[in-house]
């Protein structure tokens, strides 16, 4: 009977311990260089998850299921707190029972700096944390993002690299080399954010650029303007290079949409430009000399067209441009209707 009683006591003790431990608690501790603080995140272990490769507060909260608006508010609150003492933030936007504690990264011990990132799983969770699952501690205006969290920077410098071609011209117009007909532009862009939304930012982008369109002819074809009207001829000598280069000063105006969650952007707009120079360049196969002739070559001085861009917030952006106006003047019958287009990337 004593043995039976002892077994019953052990079983009851196990049941009591199991009832007391309702859920596991996961602890993730790391140094976030963005907010310059040591961050410890406590969360109930309702589900298993894999830590992100890049361990920072933004990625950890996203992995735990906290929505983008709550993530931004948490990070903005930590950035605004310049005090040395610990900062406690309690969040609950689908990351239930989530507690974040930070400390000044400069006060960390050497051991903590060396052991930069780690995480552990505990079998206890106090009642205070459980009660706080429906509590939020944010800034005084939670419905707005911090001005520092805008998707688009106020200004940026970009380099466009692409390939040119043309369409809609007469059948007598020679084809262009695909890889030899290149486009290069240097862009000085300003971004005016009009809507700083929770999920989407909207901005108007504008700014001058200097652009070079290189139209490289296939075979031994070249362009000539000695009679005042452009003509296309085949050279009796083999040509190593034959191209028409147009230099323009452009002003693109874009309507840009930035999607916070996907860190993805789309831009649509147009551009106007003015030709500031043009020349023909010939290089014969049997000679190292280059023949450069500067002329307007019957080109229109003004250009205008449509532009579209798509890409990640930080990274390569793909773009496409299409001239709505004709590349050459209407009096140039041998190139009537020619319109240029370009595709490429923006760095």
Supply database-style keywords.
347 residues, ten-stranded antiparallel beta sheet, five-stranded antiparallel beta sheet, 14% helix
Structure commentary:
The chain has 347 residues and is mainly β. It contains five helices and 17 strands. Strands 6, 7, 8, 9, 12, 13, 14, 15, 16 and 17 form a ten-stranded antiparallel sheet that branches. It has a five-stranded antiparallel sheet with strand order 3-4-2-1-5, with helices on one face. β15 (302-312) and β16 form a beta hairpin. α2 (57-63) runs antiparallel to α3 (68-80). The N and C termini lie far apart (82 Å). The model is unreliable at 14-22, 107-115 and 123-148 (pLDDT under 50).
Please sum up the structure shown.
The chain has helices at 2-20, 57-63, 68-80, 110-114, 127-131; strands at 25-32, 37-44, 87-91, 98-104, 118-122, 155-167, 182-196, 200-206, 209-216, 221-224, 231-234, 239-259, 264-284, 290-294, 302-312, 317-323, 339-346.
Q: CA-to-CA gap between the ends?
A: 82 Å
Unreliable stretches: 14-22, 107-115, 123-148
Give the helices and strands as they follow along the chain. Answer: HEEHHEEHEHEEEEEEEEEEEE
What does the largest sheet look like? Answer: 10 strands, antiparallel
**How many DSSP E strands?**
17
Beta-strand fraction estimate:
over 45%
Count of alpha/pi helices: 5
Shape: elongated
What percent of the residues sit in helical stretches (DSSP H or I)?
10-25%
Class computed from helices, strands and strand pairing: mainly beta
The residue-averaged pLDDT reads 75
The whole-angstrom Rg is: 32 Å
């Amino acid at each position: 009977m004593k043995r039976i009683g002892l077994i019953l006591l052990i079983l009851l003790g196990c049941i009591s311990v199991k009832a007391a431990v309702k859920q596991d608690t996961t602890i993730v501790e790391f140094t976030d260089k963005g907010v310059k603080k040591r961050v410890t995140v406590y969360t109930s272990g309702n589900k298993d998850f894999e830590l992100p490769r890049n361990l920072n507060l933004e990625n950890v909260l996203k992995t735990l299921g906290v929505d983008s608006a709550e993530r931004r508010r948490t990070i903005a609150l930590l950035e605004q707190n310049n005090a040395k003492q610990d900062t406690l933030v309690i969040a609950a936007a689908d990351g239930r029972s989530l507690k974040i504690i930070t400390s000044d990264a400069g006060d960390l011990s050497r051991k903590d700096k060396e052991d930069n990132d780690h995480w552990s799983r505990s079998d206890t969770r106090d009642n205070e944390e459980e009660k706080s699952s429906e509590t939020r501690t944010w800034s005084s205006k939670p419905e707005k993002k911090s001005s520092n969290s805008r998707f688009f920077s106020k200004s940026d410098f970009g380099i466009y690299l692409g390939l040119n071609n043309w369409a809609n011209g007469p059948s007598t117009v020679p084809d262009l080399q695909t890889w030899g007909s290149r486009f290069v532009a240097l862009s000085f862009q300003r971004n005016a954010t009009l809507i700083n939304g929770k999920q989407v930012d909207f901005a108007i982008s504008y700014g001058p650029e200097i652009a070079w369109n290189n139209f490289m002819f296939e075979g031994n074809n070249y362009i000539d303007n000695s009679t005042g009207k452009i003509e296309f001829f085949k050279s009796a000598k083999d040509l190593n290079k034959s191209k028409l280069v147009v230099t323009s000063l452009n002003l693109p105006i874009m309507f840009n949409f930035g999607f916070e969650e996907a860190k993805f952007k789309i831009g649509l707009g147009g551009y106007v430009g003015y030709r500031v120079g043009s020349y023909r360049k010939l290089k014969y196969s049997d000679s190292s000399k280059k023949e450069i002739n500067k002329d307007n070559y019957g080109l229109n001085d003004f250009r205008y067209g449509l532009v579209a861009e798509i890409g990640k917030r930080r990274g390569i952006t793909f773009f496409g441009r299409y001239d709505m106006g004709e590349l050459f003047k209407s009096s140039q019958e041998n190139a009537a209707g020619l319109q240029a287009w370009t595709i490429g990337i923006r760095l």
